[in-house]
Amino acid sequence: MNRRQLALLILLSTAIGFMMFSSLTSGLASVRPPVVIIGSGLAGFSAAMEALSAGQRVHMLERATKPGGNSIKASSGINGVPTPYQPPGDSIDLFKSDTIRSAGSRYTASRQALVDTLAEQSASAIEWLSSLGVDLSKVAQLGGHSAARTHRGSSGPPPGFAVGMLLAVGTTETC
Ligand SMILES: Cc1cc2nc3c(=O)[nH]c(=O)nc-3n(C[C@H](O)[C@H](O)[C@H](O)COP(=O)(O)OP(=O)(O)OC[C@H]3O[C@@H](n4cnc5c(N)ncnc54)[C@H](O)[C@@H]3O)c2cc1C
């Protein structure tokens, strides 16, 4: 084998190696396992929206014959502080103290992190749903709350159903 044939052989081997590597890596990408979400309530659909928007495939498992869980029954609204729809005077600390007071003897220090997450991330939940097109512009003060902070639409279906339908359609369209 002369030098020219040797150079061609090396070039050919390199090209074949590169093609095999590309094929292998693209094959690995296509078999990346899906995100499995159990339950099709608001928690499940919210997780599905996030996973889909991050480019993941989603498999949603639901034991009931219809999607939506308890979420589609929620009829009063979603609590959030502070939001542009509220009258002034409310605060995250007030939402936390109302939550702890309402929990009564069921409140324990180990639950403080949950109370903090609920109150501190409530505004961004309202903001996210509003950005998706859910009307949450009507605010009422309900039992257990010392300020108006329960958000729902000014018309149309009850809030849980409205949010559930929008997320269900959103995830189906994104799939
Ligand atoms: C009548 C009613 C009114 C309410 N009103 C309000 C309100 O106005 N405001 C408010 O903030 N909250 C309200 N709530 C509470 C609110 O609905 C729940 O906190 C919320 O829906 C919980 O959402 P989720 O996604 O965690 O659960 P869910 O919406 O209950 O979804 C859970 C899903 O998981 C499925 N599932 C469970 N186990 C399995 C399994 N092993 N395999 C497959 N699937 C499974 C269930 O079938 C269900 O579809 C209300 C609740 C009820 C019942």
UniProtKB/TrEMBL annotation:
One of its GO terms (molecular function) is oxidoreductase activity. InterPro entries: FAD-dep_OxRdtase_2_FAD-bd (IPR003953), FAD-oxidoreductase_2 (IPR050315), FAD/NAD-bd_sf (IPR036188). The keyword Metal-binding does not apply. The keyword Glycosyltransferase does not apply. Keywords: Flavoprotein, Oxidoreductase. Residues 35-155 form the FAD-dependent oxidoreductase 2 FAD-binding domain. SUPFAM superfamilies: FAD/NAD(P)-binding domain. Pfam families: FAD_binding_2. This is FAD-dependent oxidoreductase 2 FAD-binding domain-containing protein.
